[in-house]
Fold each of these.
Amino acid sequence: MAEGSDRSRLVALVLCGVLGFFGAHRFYSGKVGTGILQLLTFGGLGVWWLYDLVLISSGGFRDVDGRRIIFWTEDESLHRPMGPGDRGELTAEILDEIDGLRAEVMELTERVDFTERLLTKQRKSDEFS
């Protein structure tokens, strides 16, 4: 049987995607210390969060015991090892998910830039009033 964690990769990925800035995926994987650090630094100002998101997606994220979180469901970790053919099937799915996340991040970046420009414009008009 492949060395893998009994924790679900899908749960870790969802937690990281939704609450990653607060370290929820690290608490789930048993890494309470680094989970608290992520909570205090808002996911390392987004960099640490994004790094973890890529690690979880690629199957390289490890739990507190050092076992890779590779199985998409907890049942899968109990019943079958990951075979060489599984990697190709998951790769396309992971790439699609990453592309979707990239599009969302770009949209959020544009919104933040627009908001910053509005705030700067407002401050300048307040200064001259």
Amino acid sequence: MHPIEHFCCQNSLCVDFGIRGKGNLSFRGWSGQGKRIHMVYCRTCKFHFSERKGTVLEHACLSEEKVISVMKHIQDGCGVRSTGRLVGVGKDTVTRYLRLSGKHSEKLHHELVAFSPSDKRSSS
């Protein structure tokens, strides 16, 4: 469970959309099977969303532990088929989570790179 400061409003119409640590969010209620997923509330736009919204785990049918296990096996260099066998899921499931994680990683990369300082060495 991440601190509330790590989250940002997921409502694209909100003036605080995508801004982390603004103080406009609070945890309010639970969702999911077994009520294990926090619901986040934005006081600015009155929008409720799951803590998983905008992540690889959004709409995940697998448990969080299995998704993380799939990602760790791939990170360690295991192939799609062997990862599926080790985790107990199909190769198509592994491929689907790889695709989702790639899209999510690209968005995160652009967010972080947007704030990176420029390299003075390349301007000479």
Amino acid sequence: MNTIVALFGLLLVLQGCTYAISPSMVEKTDKTITFEMLRSDPTVYKGRLVLFGGVISQISNVKQGTLITVVQKPLDYWGKPVHTNKTGGQFLVFFPRYLDALTYDSGREITVAAEVGGTTLEALGDVEYDYPVLVSKELKLWPREQSPPGTQIQWGDPLYDPQQQP
């Protein structure tokens, strides 16, 4: 009986230590393409598989599926977006099925393995913004961070050191 409990515990630990996207999909992605490279000229990378993530800023269901606007964030070792104010910009993710807008709401973190589909020009306030468009092959919605009751979570840059400020 103890062996079964130990194996079950080990299975739970290993499950918690898996990458955001399936290993077979991660192997297919081109890890040499950075978000800065994609932003500078998305058409060069059209058809290539990439792995990016960030925070959802907007979601809308369209006729063919769901369009998610994501504020890009760097990914950690496990493929989870890092809690930082640094971003390379925004990108759009097209998901070929309908997603629940209440579940995939603004502020949620996602990681996506996707094919570069090109760009689209959209209004961002008073400015036209050229968004890279990614067609989702695999998507991971991260659970919400839970904080103890009565506390506020304040995310900051982990490299910021107030001691080194002038």
Amino acid sequence: MNKRINFEDSIFIVMMRLRMIRDVITLDADPELFLEKILDDIYFTDDVLRTLMGYLEENNSLTKRDELLEHLSEAELQFSRCIDGILNNKGNLTVREIASIGEKLIFLQNDSIERRKAIEELTSGPVNRDDDPADGSKVSSEELSELLKAF
């Protein structure tokens, strides 16, 4: 791995983008205006998560690797929940009528769940036992403190 990656900031940005997506799908916005952008954000987020996972799998000598994997696992869980919200019409965006989009989102969600399982194997145990994407989001007090530092 020749690149120097700031995993913490990258994962933080992913989490903020996921929050933005969840907020947009729950607002009463016009789906015709935002659907394409939301889908682009979902595809981009999947690509970032996949890339970060690849780098962490390649480099097992990173300091704080287990901690980074734990944060990545949480991002994967939030990503899966975000997709679940779109698929289950938790807002104005309806993709079930567009079969190809629904199928792609289901594929991405399943892929995310598989990456979380791979993270569990890398850390030799469950990182977060709550795999149900339909549950509400959970933020530890440490994560909340880190998020609030920016404000």
